[in-house]
């Protein structure tokens, strides 16, 4: 069926129900072939894309989805230095659970998964808060672990905003999480002093988690009121349609992730961890190298989260309009090298590198978050993809932060010089990876990462309709096993080094 005939049929409709019927009757083009070790990524293509979803449905959905994780983010932000072991324990579990949770999201559908995860978050928040009565440390740790559930927001954003403002919405979500973190950190101490009971710092976030659960339930009912043609497909419904329901219950969605996505994960080794290590040690570096008071150092460090609240959404708008995502990989790497040199190897005022790091922070996470839906090429696998990405990120961070601490401890002067050299070397690799990603983008996925949101959707659509053999969207078992083995080894090392260095066993 040609696009012209589809447009003529849609123009003749007068009601949403009529339009829904036209969309429901459109043909679906399945695509799956095999060539040796690689097999093409399977997906469906309809003649009407997601841009046909009315704006009112999108905005109402976003007004709820945006706040799904506010309670858990707020609870995480209230953990200050005295709860560091609790936070580390949850990070340790986060090396595995995101993958399991991501597979569950793809199977059950993001709406149901959001409700299920919110239930666990509420339970965990309540258990942690209850542990403050009588100083039950085990309850605090156990509650935090229960709250480590995979977020469903990325998959839902990809459904409602693909082809229009997807990067901008991702950026808004990142900015909102940063705002939540800033509010949580600044309010943690005042909350702990309410009525002389420090447990309020955990009970208030638990109450917010209840509201998030109610919001997830409200979204689930809202989604059922939207015309069926515009709803995110339930994972179970999609698998029934494919006739592979029993197969998809397992971790087999990992095998369906394409080659370019796995390569991105494997080559980003320790990149996010370098930023996390710098951030966690920033206040102490100021104190040791410049004699800054702890109070002033903490204040200076907090400033790096302010500028990205504005610049990150602007970066998302740029990606949607112009593309050029991988150019920001090298740009961000170069900025961080400058930051590390200034903060660790000179005595310039700390605000100079901190302000520069704000600009780097604005383009760091959003670049890769916006690239993942493009490299995966199939919204039905985004839960698993984001889960793998987060597992890599958490394992990387745990390993590098412990390694950085050990390196500093072995310094005769207790300086951060060797740690800074390591961070610079890691970010130098990121500068190199940018052009390589861009080259592979042109060779493998038709320069989709260079295009704006509308153009990249058209490239993927044409690729499927014309049965093109795009290497980047193939499923390569060799690549999956190599990078999957890398992740497995990284998780094992993370657990080992955590036990040895953090617990002292």
Structure described in brief:
With 505 residues, the protein is mainly alpha-helical.
Protein model, in words:
The chain has a three-stranded antiparallel β-sheet. It has two domains: 184 residues, Up-down Bundle (Growth Hormone, Chain: A), CATH 1.20.1250.20; 255 residues, MFS general substrate transporter like domains (Growth Hormone, Chain: A), CATH 1.20.1250.20. The chain has 505 residues and is mainly alpha-helical.
How would you describe this structure in keywords?
mainly alpha, Growth Hormone, Chain: A, 2 domains, 2% strand, 505 residues
Major sheet details: 3 strands, antiparallel
Level-2 CATH architecture of the largest domain? Up-down Bundle
Helicity, as a percent range: over 70%
The domain count comes to 2
Class from secondary-structure proportions? mainly alpha
What is CATH's topology name of the largest domain? Growth Hormone, Chain: A
Percent of residues in beta strands: under 5%
User: Which blocks of ≥5 consecutive residues have pLDDT under 50?
Assistant: 1-11, 19-37, 39-48, 241-249
**Helix segment count?**
23
User: Briefly, what CATH class of the largest domain?
Assistant: Mainly Alpha
Strand order of the largest sheet: 1-2-3
Element layout with pairings:
Elements: H1 3-11, H2 16-24, E1 34-35, E2 38-40, H3 55-65, H4 70-77, H5 84-93, H6 97-108, H7 110-130, H8 137-146, H9 153-161, H10 166-192, H11 200-225, H12 235-242, H13 245-248, H14 259-267, H15 271-290, H16 294-302, H17 307-321, H18 327-345, H19 351-376, H20 382-409, H21 417-444, H22 453-465, E3 474-476, H23 477-502
Antiparallel strand pairs: 1-2, 2-3
Helix pairs in contact: 3-9, 4-10, 4-11, 5-8, 6-7, 6-20, 7-8, 7-11, 10-11, 10-17, 10-19, 14-23, 15-16, 15-18, 15-20, 15-21, 17-19, 18-19, 18-21, 20-21, 20-23
């Amino acid at each position: 069926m040609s696009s012209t005939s589809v447009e003529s049929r849609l123009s003749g409709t007068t009601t949403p129900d009529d339009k829904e019927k036209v969309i429901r009757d459109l043909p679906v083009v399945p695509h799956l072939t095999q060539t040796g070790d690689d097999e093409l990524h399977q997906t469906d293509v309809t003649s009407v894309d997601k841009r046909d979803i009315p704006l009112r449905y999108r905005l109402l959905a976003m007004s709820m989805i945006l706040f799904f994780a506010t309670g858990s983010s707020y609870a995480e932000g209230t953990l200050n230095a005295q709860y560091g072991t609790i936070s580390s324990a949850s990070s340790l579990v986060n090396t595995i659970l995101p993958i399991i949770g991501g597979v569950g999201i793809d199977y059950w559908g993001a709406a149901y998964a959001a409700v299920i995860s919110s239930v666990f978050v509420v339970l965990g928040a309540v258990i942690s808060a209850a542990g403050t009565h009588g100083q039950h440390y085990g309850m605090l740790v156990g509650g935090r672990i229960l709250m480590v559930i995979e977020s469903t927001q990325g998959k839902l954003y990809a459904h409602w905003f693909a082809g229009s403002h997807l990067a901008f919405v991702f950026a808004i979500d990142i900015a909102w999480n940063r705002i939540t973190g800033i509010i949580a950190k600044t309010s943690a101490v005042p909350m702990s002093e309410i009525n002389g009971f420090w447990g309020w710092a955990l009970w208030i976030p638990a109450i917010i988690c209840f509201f998030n659960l109610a919001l997830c339930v409200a979204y689930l009912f809202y989604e059922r009121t939207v015309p069926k043609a515009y709803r995110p497909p339930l994972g179970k419904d999609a698998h029934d349609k494919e006739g592979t329901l029993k197969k998809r219950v397992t971790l087999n969605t990992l095998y369906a992730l394409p080659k370019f996505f796995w390569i991105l994960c494997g080559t980003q080794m320790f990149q996010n961890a370098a930023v996390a290590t710098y951030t966690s040690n920033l206040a102490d570096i100021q104190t040791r190298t410049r004699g800054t008071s702890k109070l002033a150092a903490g204040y200076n460090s907090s400033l790096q989260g302010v500028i990205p609240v504005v610049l990150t959404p602007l970066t998302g708008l740029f990606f949607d309009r112009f593309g050029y995502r991988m150019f920001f990989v090298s740009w961000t790497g170069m900025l961080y090298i400058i930051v590390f040199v200034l903060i660790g190897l000179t005595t310039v005022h700390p605000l100079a590198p901190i302000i520069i790091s704000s600009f780097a922070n604005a383009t760091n996470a959003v670049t890769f978050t916006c690239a993942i839906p493009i490299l995966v090429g199939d919204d039905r696998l985004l839960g698993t993809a984001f889960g793998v990405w987060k597992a890599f990120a958490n394992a990387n961070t745990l390993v590098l932060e412990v390694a950085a601490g050990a390196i500093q401890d072995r310094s005769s002067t207790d300086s951060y010089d060797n740690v800074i050299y390591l961070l610079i070397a890691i970010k130098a690799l990121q500068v190199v990876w940018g052009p390589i990603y861009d080259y592979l983008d042109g060779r493998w996925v038709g320069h989709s990462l260079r295009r704006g949101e509308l153009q990249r959707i058209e490239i993927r659509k044409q690729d499927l309709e014309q049965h093109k053999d795009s290497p980047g969207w193939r499923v390569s078992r060799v690549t999956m096993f190599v990078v999957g083995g890398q992740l497995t080894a990284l998780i094992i090392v993370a657990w080992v080094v955590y036990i040895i260095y953090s617990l002292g066993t």
